[in-house]
Every structure is written in structure tokens, then in C-alpha cells.
């Protein structure tokens, strides 16, 4: 029996063309640049999630050849739009636009099922996604891809890209959007940690201020008691000390102590009071 002979077919056996390799290299470099830019923005603006979300949406739309891209965060029974880039209308302004968190909306189902969902023509999916299909006809998009944002096994939002024609996204574009989803999760977690740290710092500062105030009051009380013990028969030093401490603790410019008498009040102590102030108070009393 004759052995099989392998023949060389240049059309079949040749590898990618130089043009294809150049295009793939350019795409890889652009993706790497976009990823680096987003990570740099995350590290330099921990409290400015909005601007980073916008960078992610813009990069996702451009690199995935989509007409638009958006990022949504879970908020109770709905999804709130936190970033959008592109020509297709969104459901409302950033921060106000919402989507119902239901299985009848493709993005909502992606979050509920924690699964990447892809519809080639959402306008035709009237049975599978009734609300989403109606929304697609109203806004004018057809192909849609949604990737849930997963943190610690929980879906906390989604990122999506859309096209106005029925043209499915490629596997490479799907994988790329998953990368952008991971970056969006980093933004959310980074922002959460930053806010938690700011809250902790404020609590520590508040407790420290309360402690300092308490110590000041204790010290003031000790000063007054010390003067009383040294001057058991002379009330003037005690009243002068009370006026001085009251001015300091209340951060006042002046302090006065008045004693009620039959015909009015008599000035018995003052601290940092101008002579005309003292005279005015004496004459009033």
C-alpha cells in the first residue's frame, strides 16, 4: 500500500501576511496603552471614579469597534448609569439614567445571572428580552454585548457596548470587554476603600477632638479648684481665673463675670476687656 505523501500548498500553509501581523501588533499596542492609561488614572484619582469610568467607556467603544459603551452600577432594584461614550442615546444623563434590574432586559439579566450576554439583533429578541427589545427599537441599537462586574462573587454592575447594525462582536472583542469589566471593578473597589479610609480618618479626628476638649475641661476644672484651695477667703482670684478660662475654652475675644445685686449687675471679673468696655458694663450695671 503506497504511503501518503504530504505536499506543500503555499496558499494553505503560509502564515499570516505581513499586513495582518502589523495590524494585530498595532491593536495589541493600542490595547496595552489603553489599559496602562486606565490603571494610571485609577492610581492617581482614587476619589474620581467618574473620570476613570469615562476613560473605560471611551476605550471600550474605540477598541471594540462599537458605536457606544457604558458602565452601570447596581443600585437596589435598578442599574444606574455612571459612564457613557458614543452616539447611541443612553437611558438618561450620567448619574440619573437607569435600567430595571430584570431578566427582560439583557443587561439586567447579565447582572442577575452573573454571565456575559451577547445578542446579534436585540430588536428581534421580543420573546427573550421583551423590555430590552422595545428599548432597542426606541434607542436605535441592534447588536449588544454586556459583561457583568463581579466583585467577591457578587454582580455589582455591568459594562456594555452596542452597534446600530446587526453585526456581532468577535471573540477578541468579547475578551477585551471582559478586561475592561475587570478594570471597572477595580475602580469601584478602589473608590469604596478610599471612602472607607476617609470615613475612618474623620472618625479618628472627631474622637481626638472630643478627647482634647474633654482634657481641656478637666484641666480647667483643676485650675479653678486649685485657685479655690489657695484662696479660701478671697473670691476675686477665683472669678478672674473663671473669666480667663471661659475666654480660652469658648475662643472669645473677651470674658466678663457679673454678679446680680438689688439694683442690677456688678462687674466682678474681666479678661482681655478694653477699659471702655469695662466702663460701659459698670455703668449699665
Helix content: 40-55%
Largest sheet geometry? 6 strands, antiparallel
Which strand order does the major sheet show? Answer: 3-2-1-6-5-4
CATH-level-2 architecture of the largest domain: 2-Layer Sandwich
Q: Based on helices, strands and strand pairing, what is the structural class?
A: alpha+beta
In CATH, the topology of the largest domain is named: Beta-Lactamase
Q: What is the number of strand segments?
A: 8
Number of helices: 8
C-alpha-based Rg, rounded: 36 Å
CATH superfamily of the largest domain: GAF domain
Alpha carbon gap, first and last residue:
132 Å
- Average pLDDT for all residues: 83
CATH top-level class of the largest domain: Alpha Beta
**Share of residues in strands:** 15-25%
* Low-pLDDT segments, ≥5 res: none
- Domain count: 2
Could you spell the SSE succession in H and E letters?
A: HHHEEEHEHEEHHEEH
Global outline: elongated
